[in-house]
Design brief:
six-stranded mixed beta sheet; five-stranded antiparallel beta sheet; 7 helices
């Protein structure tokens, strides 16, 4: 269970334990029998990991509604026995169960959860018909908001139905007394005079991050996904005008659609147990508004043949390329072509945009790749190479793009080398610039060359995460959006121990001296496996989409968890200007837009 869920569960338990004590001093009634409330089990429409909310919300409502001598909440076991076998309880069911328990009121509802978002729909009705039902609906963006919403519902019932004194007045009074009697000697000296703010939690705490900044608009995170997402792309695979998110993990392809507070899997495909998916590309090769899914797959096979003259283990496993082409057919992924002996990728090739390319895998005695890179064409159920792609020798199907980044009307080649350094070269391969930072680093690898298995002398090739070419602010200057590793010690570790578990996504552009940074995200803990830009909501607005592997052991992808981040993008100079003006007005650190760097001339 995640830290956030553990904290929420602990909070619900403490409120359930401490709640009745808060009302223990309520005045005893002059006479009469306390009214009885039956709190029925809430219908749960949530992932399994949020099932604890059913018990936690009932415990909290019980503690808040119980009022000594006036309101009695019926025993849970008694209520559950009466509601046994019912999942979604209707108003008629609630009336019937309440009458069988001889209750005066019955409370029922449902909890729907997706990702971090939770919606609560509840109602309390009087079985005698006195008074109007008390209905409540709330939708939270995070799990942290569940407790305040349930508390609001309980207060509404207490006020409207039982005329119970409100908690807010008591809390304000208690807080005023505490502020009036606190010892000034315990306050942090100079906290206010230095410009710091006192936290609302405790006057002895200095506020570091303002509460309003903890949930910034424009950023969204999905629920945790099982398995390591080794690669991710976005595209309209069903032709509805809205981009889907397509991921590969181990031997499974999953198509997700962003809905409400989370991702919903709308289609999937599983390969054989011998398959290992290492890359996915989504592109509309027919230009008909519907994209195909291209999966680079390695299929394991056993062999007893020696490699060259070296005496290695007689039994060993190798992997051959056996890729797939998939298409969405009525919500199901169908195989268009399989056993394609090429790695597949869609690469940005300058003025031509994204082009589907392929390359063969090298022999175990040689290197990771064999031969050149070819444009690929889908003919019926066959995917065949056509024209070769002219690139420097250092390029392979996964590590380069072409783009005119300096507006000289010639495409430069941007390459990620074996050490995850970013290179800018001329078309002939002459180096123009090299980064000092690590870019596009991942743990997604395959055996490039086997020298001697007895001593684990195996050369691994690590597939870099993608480079996105875009012009978000429409100024005619191309930007490269890609992942940058923020930890440097991984480069000193053996291949089997590298994790690259911290990074940030940055936008960089060219000036006279090299690549300069335009903007960046906050640092993220995990391996960034994919960076894409798409329109997930179908409204024409674009989002930066990031897939990230989060796990205790990032070298065990089959036993990992992953998540998807999206950032809303202000696309175009008008939106950027408005955003800068708003930022300056609100006094943030972003300020107005930066002036254009020298040496970069916008395209006319």
């Amino acid at each position: 269970m995640s830290i956030g869920k553990s904290a929420l569960l602990f909070s619900l338990m403490m409120l359930a334990i401490l709640g009745p004590a808060q009302y223990g001093s309520a005045a005893e009634p002059a006479g009469g029998v306390p009214v009885k409330i039956a709190i029925l089990p809430f219908a749960m429409h949530t992932p399994a990991e949020l099932s604890y909310l059913q018990s936690g919300v009932r415990d909290m409502l019980t503690s808040r509604l119980a009022w000594q001598g006036k309101v009695q909440v019926l025993e849970r076991s008694q209520v559950e026995q009466a509601a046994k076998g019912l999942k979604d309880i209707s108003a008629n069911d609630a009336n019937r169960i309440g009458n069988s328990l001889r209750a005066d009121y019955v409370l029922f509802g449902s909890i729907t959860g997706m990702g971090q978002s939770v919606s609560i729909d509840a109602k309390m009705i009087s079985l005698s018909g006195k008074g109007e039902p008390v209905s409540f609906f709330a939708q939270t963006k995070t799990l942290d908001e569940v407790i305040p919403q349930v508390n609001n519902f309980a207060q509404e019932i207490n006020t409207k139905v039982f005329a119970k004194p409100g908690e807010k007045t008591q809390t304000a009074s208690a807080e005023a007394e505490a502020l009036a009697t606190r010892n000034p000697e315990f306050l942090l000296p100079g906290a206010l005079s230095s410009g710091d703010k006192i936290s609302y939690i405790n006057p002895n705490f200095i506020e570091v991050t303002p509460d309003g900044q903890l949930r910034q608009p424009g950023v969204w995170r999905s629920q945790n996904l099982d398995g390591a997402v080794m690669a991710m792309d976005v595209g309209d695979v069903d032709g509805d005008g809205k981009d889907e998110i397509v991921t590969v993990s181990q031997n499974k392809v999953t198509v997700y659609r962003r809905e409400a507070g989370g991702l919903r899997a709308v289609a999937s495909f599983e390969g054989t147990p011998l398959d290992r998916f290492v890359w996915v590309s989504v592109t509309d090769v027919h230009r008909d508004g519907k994209a195909y899914i291209y999966v680079s797959n390695l299929r394991r096979k056993n062999s007893s043949k020696a490699i060259g003259e070296k005496q290695i283990l007689p039994e060993y496993s190798t992997e051959d390329v056996s890729s797939y082409v998939l298409s969405d057919m009525g919500g199901k992924l169908q195989v268009v072509a399989d056993r394609v002996p090429y790695f597949l990728n869609t690469v940005y090739l300058g003025q031509r945009g994204k082009v589907l390319v392929g390359q063969q895998k090298g022999e175990s005695t040689e290197s990771g790749f064999k031969g050149g890179i070819f444009e690929m064409q889908l003919r019926g159920k066959s995917l065949d190479p056509t024209a070769p792609v002219s690139v420097p020798e250092a390029c392979n199907i996964f590590n380069f793009i072409k783009a005119d980044i300096n507006n000289d009307h010639m495409d430069e080649v941007i390459v990620v080398d074996r050490n995850f350094r970013l290179l800018v070269t001329t078309p002939s391969g002459d180096q123009v610039w090299k980064s000092s930072n690590l870019f596009c680093a991942t743990v997604n690898s395959f055996e490039a060359k086997i020298e001697d298995l007895r001593f684990n002398r195996v050369d691994l090739y690590f597939i870099p995460s993608p480079i996105v070419v875009t012009d978000l602010n429409k100024d005619g200057i191309l930007e490269l959006v890609l992942n940058r590793t923020t930890t440097m010690f991984d480069k000193f570790l053996p291949d089997s121990m590298k994790s690259y578990e911290k990074g940030e996504v940055v936008s960089i552009s060219w000036d006279q001296l090299g690549m300069v940074e335009n903007w960046k995200t906050r640092e993220m803990s995990g391996v960034v496996s994919g960076v894409r830009i798409g329109s997930l909501m179908g409204d024409g607005k674009k989002q930066l989409v990031i897939s990230m592997v989060i796990a205790k052991d990032l070298l065990k992808p089959w036993d990992a968890k992953s998540t998807i981040f999206t950032y809303d993008l202000n696309v175009g100079p008008a939106q950027a200007k408005d955003a800068a003006a708003t930022s300056a007005k609100e006094g943030t650190d972003e300020g107005p837009a930066k002036p254009m760097l020298p040496g970069r001339t916008p395209k006319k």
